[in-house]
Amino acid sequence: MVSAIPLPLRIAAWVFVAFCALLLIGPLIVVVGVSLSESRFIAFPPDGLSLRWYAQVLSSDAYLAAGWLSLQLAVLVTVSATILGGAAAIAIHRRRLPASEAMATYFLSPLVLPTIIYALGMLMLWSAFVGPVSLLTLWIAHSVIAVPYVVRTTLAVLADSDPFLEEAAATMGAGRVQRLWLVLLPQCLPGLAAGAFFAFNLSFDEAVVSLFLRRPGLTTLPVHIYNQLEFSPDPAVAAVSTIMIGLTVFLILVIDRLVGVQKVASN
Amino acid sequence: MTRSLLLSFSAILAAGTAANAQTITINSFGGAYEEAHRKCIIEPFEQATGASVQIVTAYSADGFAQLRAQREAPQFDVIHFSGGQEIIAAQEGLLVPIDPASLSNAGDLVAAARPNLEGGEGPAYSIVAMGLLYNSDVIETTPTNWSDLTNPEWHENLVLTDISNTYGMQGFLMLNQVAGGDLSNIQPGLDLVGQMLDGGAIVVSTSPEIMQEFAQNDAWIAPYSSDYAFVLQDAGLPIGFVQGAEGTPGVYITANLVAGRDNEELSLQLIDRSISPEAQVCFAEEMSYAPTNVRAELTGEVAENTPFGEEALSGLIRFDPQTVEAERSNWVDAWNRTIAR
Amino acid sequence: MTDRRENLILVAPGLLLLAVAFFWPIGQMLMLAFEGPDGPTLDHFRRFLGDEFYLTVLWRTVRLSLLITLICLLIGFPLAYIMARVGPRARLWLIIMLILPLMTSVVVRTFGWMVVLSRSGLIPSTLRDMGLVGRSYAIMHSELAIVIGMVQVLLPFMALSILGVLLRLDIRLEEAARTMGCSFLSSMRSVVLPLSAPGILAGSLLVFTLSASSFVTPNLLGGPRVQVLAASIYRQVTQTLDWNFAAAQAVILFAGVALVLIPYIMLMRRPAHG
After folding, report:
1. How many domains does chain C have?
2. Which of A24, A32, A154 should one mutate to test binding to chain C, selecting the residue with the greatest count of C CBs within 10 A?
3. Which residues does chain B have within 8 Å of residue A216's beta carbon, measured at their own beta carbons?
């Protein structure tokens, strides 16, 4: 730390950080706590400790179906977003396309637009031209939202990579496909992988678009949780939520290993 | 390898895309009710027919609004109402007339539960009594009248329910009646509610909330229904339920056949199951709902807990659903203004 | 095959996806907002702007978003500064602390607040035990609840935005100011704040936009009686099924947000100040 900062200010700083930590992480801890509650009523701190709600969730058709749908969807989205986003990032990075700058903005635009506006538009377009929403609709919509993340992380990694490697390979006679596969792909792999995990997390946790593009039978896990929160909140909801938090923590650790959370954060 | 990948891909999409021909969509009321609903009717139905049931949680008023809005392309096959909405829905052509012969259990229903099957009003499969829920540890002398709620000592620990919920509406209309008003004038009721709020009463909107209030937040008394009193007792809380001397509003929960859908036969089977003796006994055991099928035999404790038998049904108060529905949005506005703080 | 061709092939699928599945839907929605039974109309907009209830909703959305942005700034700036000045290890943990709520599902986060802010929740019952409020006090279903919930969600955006700029700030500038006799606070005021202005501005615009267009958190924490614009749109779409009206509201939201976003986009494209 800059040494000229007076001690009382430093203490105040750490107290402040503790407060921020409470604000940011507190609600998540509360959710975990509620999930361990014995009684059927929501209470924090929990009355009694029990894992019964986890058992209930893991044997509930409704939760399992929603979880399964979310999982399938997330996998599909990860694949599509990574392929499309990664390819686009490579193309943009090379800067041999006209208006690379504009292209980058184009691909990052879903990040800037409020999701609700997009969700509404997607629902209307689909209903008008195709019909009732389906898994395909969700897949497409989630992919659209996930692609910018993949593009961003891949571009970030590529920005630090050695541009001459590809040239060197070309000089030595590597064909186009070889260059892509053997040089560029390994170069951006960490970024690509991080983007993939982001995409997975995004799709699995996504609530806004999924709330608009839903139908009985097409309920993702976050949407099911939302329903429960409206009419029947109970510790079972907390149990599912805790599982989801665990998944997110795991993904963050993986992304950090791959690319370093710092790099992602400062973009 | 690519070909089989492609095939499995399309299979996944198709599975997600195509609506299963053997699926029907219904509404239910969330929380403990929905659990009982699943256990007593939906799961046995799914097992018996092999069909699957999609449940959308929607209270009667919202469900009705959706039904009206979706007139051209309804999403529900069977819709459940607790506030008498079926009467107006049938008139508006949103529900399909039911031939009593198509329901094997229709003949065993009490007359009050099937006033107008041919007109489209589905049969009632549960009847709930409205009354006073109270914490018997705190309130030692059992309350007897609805007007006991005007006791200012209790207002700080009184829980009212928003009228967007059928139970809230029924409770409010009864309070209104006790305060001297009627369906054409709800001001006395609103004034009474205002007094209660000034005295510290709170307003909740859903059944889980009211249970939470009694379980954790020192609620002493509330105008509410017999079913949730039972659930709370079952959870080990010292809750008593009593029907007010001035009268007992009855809530008739009906299962209705929605017009404009392809699954009439399956839907009728679901409705039939709702009024079957087995389902009714199950519901009585789960949440002490009064059965409407005379062949449903309740035994022992369950029989004692059920608020009334056949004869008492005729004594139940029924606030005219037509008026209630017609006035609903005005009343909701007035109510919101009264409780706004 | 030329370089250009190759790159075009790489970029084409993504381009197509966004064109068809992002820009076109937005266009469709814009169209629906102006669609009436007899052709293009402004009726839906008139209906919105002429109804007191909806104007209240709009005003509430703007008001709360401004408040949320301000609070995020007041908390986010000091937090970002601290994060910029600590060692890399500590910074990593702080970044994770920021990212974790960001990456959990919004319904999960909001649930946590529902528990804490409800009548029997931790905060109201503590306040009650301290005798500060009456028995029926609950923070849930109020504007305060919405603000608290949204600040948690949006604080990371603000903090990370400012952090980005602060990290690029040469620490020697601050030290120079200090050597020349400035106190900590005044070096803050005359050196750090002006130079981090772009980050502050960018963060504020982002937070404002996101809070104006949020609906899950406000819907759950505010309840049916405390509606914001996005929540109103959701209700129109799912309950009254009045899609044209919902689209009109979305356009109004879009217009408001675009007004804020355009300066943001322009800011982002400028090279960072050293």
Report:
1. 1
2. A24
3. 25, 54-56, 75
Domain B129-249+320-339, classified CATH 3.40.50.620, yes or no:
no
Q: Residue written as tokens 């750090």?
A: C192
What global pTM score does this model have? 0.84
**Closest chain B residue to C138, measured at CA:** B202
DSSP state for residue A56 in the 8-state scheme: H
Kindly indicate the confidence band of residue A152, based on its pLDDT and cuts at 50, 70 and 90. Answer: confident
Of B66, B164, B217, Cβ closest to residue C120: B217
Q: What is the CATH number of the domain that holds C214?
A: 1.10.3720.10
Residues of B in Cβ contact (< 8 Å) with C242 = 69
Q: How buried is residue C143: exposed, middle or buried, by Cβ count under 10 Å (0-12/13-18/19+)?
A: middle
User: Once rounded to an integer, what is the mean pLDDT over residues B201-205?
Assistant: 86
Check if B2-127+250-313 and B129-249+320-339 are the same fold: yes
Give the C-alpha separation, B98 to B184, whole Å: 33
Chain position carrying tokens 């893991």: A58
The pLDDT confidence band at residue B16, using thresholds 50, 70 and 90, is very low
Going from the C-alpha of C28 to that of each of A104, A120, B48, B239, C244, the distances in angstroms are: 24, 10, 45, 55, 11
Pairing, β B202-204 against β B159-161: parallel
Domain-embedded: residue C230: yes
Which CA distances in Å does A123 have to A9, A22, B211, B271, C14?
A: 52, 38, 37, 33, 20
* C100 Cβ under 8 Å from any chain A Cβ: yes
- Which residue shows structure tokens 């035990």? C129
Distance CA B160, CA C156 (A): 39
Range with the lowest mean pLDDT among A221-225, B108-112, C185-189? C185-189
Query: Is A49 within a domain?
Result: no
Please report, for the domain that includes residue A194, its CATH number.
Answer: 1.10.3720.10
Query: What residue numbers bound the domain in which A134 lies?
Result: 60-265
C244: chain B residues, CB-CB within 8 Å: none
Report yes or no on C11 lying in a domain: no
C19 to chain B nearest CA, in Å? Answer: 22
Sort out which chain C residues have CB atoms less than 8 A from A107's CB and list them: 14, 18
Is position C86 within any domain?
Answer: yes
A68 assigned to some structural domain: yes
Answer yes or no: is A100 within a domain.
yes
Q: What is the ipTM of this complex?
A: 0.84
Q: How many domains, in total, are found in chain A?
A: 1
User: Is pLDDT at B5 greater than 70 in this prediction?
Assistant: no
Q: Is it the case that residue B187 has pLDDT exceeding 90?
A: yes
What mean pLDDT do residues A28-46 have? 88
CATH, range B2-127+250-313: 3.40.190.10
pLDDT tens per residue across span C31-67? 888 888 778 888 888 888 888 888 989 999 999 999 9
Cα distances (angstroms) measured from residue A50 to each of A35, B102, B232, B233, C120: 8, 47, 20, 21, 21
Nearest Cα of chain B lies from the Cα of C82 at a distance, in angstroms, of 41
